[in-house]
Amino acid sequence: MDRVPALRLYGKRGSPQAFAIRDFLHRSDVPFDWVELGSDEQARAELGLDNVNDTRLPICVFPDGTRMERPTVRQVTEKLGWFHHPSRSEYDVAIYGAGPAGLSASVYASSEGLRTVLVERFAVGGQAGSSPNIENYLGFPDGISGAQLAERAREQAAKFGVEVLIDRAGVRGEFSTCKGVVELNDGTTLVSRVSVCATGVEYRRLELPGEDKFLGAGVYYGAGASEAQLCGNEHVVMVGAGNSSAQASLHLSRYARKVTIVMRGKRLNDNVSEYLVDRVTHTPNIEILPKSQVVALHGDEMLHAVTIRNCETGDERMIETSFLFLCLGGRPNTQWAQEVGIVRDEQGYLVTGPDLAPTTESWKLNREPYYLETSMPGVFAAGDVRHGSIKRVASAVGEGAMTIAFVHRYLASG
Ligand SMILES: Cc1cc2nc3c(=O)[nH]c(=O)nc-3n(C[C@H](O)[C@H](O)[C@H](O)COP(=O)(O)OP(=O)(O)OC[C@H]3O[C@@H](n4cnc5c(N)ncnc54)[C@H](O)[C@@H]3O)c2cc1C
């Protein structure tokens, strides 16, 4: 059944501001109409603007008639009634990151009677929220979009009374054996008896000139699920050789004229699921360029072409495209942990439980750390951010649930 759009978003093709709002709404599974303005006449007729380059774009129009000109994502969340301040001075559990691990931890914590707050810096769902179709998550034989899975989990968490604070990020913390005090990027302070870090990983970048300028204007990190339907009849380029790249390419191939996968290696990674390898290689409009890399981005306001170099021969070719998707895996953003002396591995992942044992001089308690506990008692880690994690939705959900079992033990031990 078609759902009623929560708003209508007007903007120009290649507008990073419009992309940020589209991406947020799509990940949050909020139905909306996107109107791409193609001419001055259309801008005048639809919105009474001077022309299609009017600086008031993008514009959101809500069913109650409210019109927001060039709004930020924060302003849209406020209008949707999703932006909240913490209601308590102290919580039992504060969970940072609302991907599958954080959502799962919050559902288990709140359903088991713990006063729980969940903090998310962007949209609920995490990396999984950008996945067009998750086919290997138990119980969904036809697959489920990451956005739908996240929205169902958010509803479930809300039903159990979790407070969800979106558009906020934890930036630094102080921890003692009885509580954690974490400062958020807007200056708010959260106090909790236990903290759970489920902040996943940051996408890797190409580190090419122009990458920042084209972000949201032709360059997209992750699967860019909100953009797929806009790729009609286009040649799109996907960089990456992992599961997410393969899965996203298949999804894009349903809309785009052609999808070119660029990878440094000879073939898709060995850990790509067999069913995906099979489908990618049998999809006629997907081309794979092995031993290759993108070496330059071209365009003015928007990406128009990329240069691809063959790493063996040095030969270069240019592909005209306005859609470059980067599924390059990621690295954890755990600088805050280093600042407070929490043990990380060489790549910055948080080390927990048995992996800590021989290295941790700072551990002062006369019990072993719990399985998902970091080197700081009462600070736990779950999902992709954790050293040795499996990088799958199911394992992140499982770790989120397990964490809460250890949280109970920690709280019971005084
Ligand atoms: C395109 C794509 C497709 C995928 N498809 C599949 C699939 O089909 N099957 C599968 O099993 N796996 C898939 N994966 C992998 C899977 O999505 C991840 O393993 C899983 O999302 C990890 O969950 P997580 O909760 O640990 O972290 P994430 O999903 O990365 O969530 C972390 C969250 O923390 C937030 N955050 C970060 N820092 C802060 C901070 N300081 N304060 C507050 N919040 C913060 C982030 O914004 C993010 O929302 C896919 C990944 C991608 C990118």
Q: What does this entry look like structurally?
A:
The protein has helices at residues 16-27, 40-47, 73-80, 100-111, 146-159, 211-214, 243-253, 274-281, 335-339, 393-412; strands at residues 7-11, 32-36, 59-61, 67-69, 91-96, 116-120, 163-166, 170-175, 180-184, 189-197, 201-203, 219-221, 235-239, 258-262, 286-289, 292-299, 303-310, 316-320, 324-326, 330-332, 379-381. It is of the alpha/beta class and 414 residues long. The strands form five sheets. Strands 5, 6, 7, 8, 9, 10 and 21 form a seven-stranded mixed β-sheet that branches. Strands 12-19-13-14-15 form a five-stranded parallel β-sheet, with helices on one face. A four-stranded mixed β-sheet has the order 2-1-3-4, covered by helices on one side. The longest helix is centred in the C-terminal third of the chain and has 20 residues, at 393-412. The chain is globular and about 70 Å long. The structure holds flavin-adenine dinucleotide. Flavin-adenine dinucleotide (FAD) binds at residues 96-102, 119-122, 126-128, 130-131, 134-136, 169-170, 198-201, 222-223, 243-244, 247-248, 327, 333, 383-384, 391-394, 396.
In short:
The protein is α/β, with parallel strands linked by helices. Helix content is 25%, strand content 24%.
Our estimate of the beta-strand percent is 15-25%
Tell me the helix content.
10-25%
Low-confidence stretches: none
Structural class: alpha/beta
Average pLDDT level: 93
Straight-line N-to-C gap: 51 Å
Overall number of strands: 21
What would you call the shape?
globular
- What is the overall number of helices? 10
Largest sheet at a glance?
7 strands, mixed
Which ligands are bound? Answer: flavin-adenine dinucleotide
**What is the rounded Rg?**
22 Å
